[in-house]
């Protein structure tokens, strides 16, 4: 995997949603909302963006008579998230050793 910046994960809580879902088979809407700490409309908006990018699968159904929504990362979504996280990690080494160049 090559570290690569992915602008999809740089807007709103999309990175948090991806990070949460990378360790789950499926997560229900309420769990994602509560873990990310955002409102329903914010989660809906960013979930739609992730879905449009092909990174998120959305399943709708019901538990009893109550409608439910579940999310999971797609294969390409997992790959894109891993690549983006690797890119973020690689940034920490960019300035390594440059402190010695600062004046006293």
TrEMBL record:
Residues 14-91 form the Winged helix DNA-binding domain. Pfam families: HTH_34. It comes from the Bacteria. PANTHER family: BSL7504 PROTEIN. This is Transcriptional regulator. It comes from Actinomycetospora termitidis.
């Amino acid at each position: 995997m090559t570290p690569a910046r992915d602008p999809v994960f740089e807007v709103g809580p999309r990175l948090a949603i991806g990070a949460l879902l990378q360790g789950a088979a499926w997560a229900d809407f309420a769990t994602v909302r509560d873990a990310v700490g955002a409102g329903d409309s914010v989660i809906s908006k960013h979930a739609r963006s992730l879905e449009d990018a092909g990174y998120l699968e959305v399943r709708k159904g019901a538990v009893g008579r109550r409608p439910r929504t579940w999310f999971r990362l797609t294969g390409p979504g997992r790959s894109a998230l891993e690549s983006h996280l690797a890119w973020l990690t690689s940034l920490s080494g960019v300035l390594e050793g440059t402190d010695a160049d600062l004046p006293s």
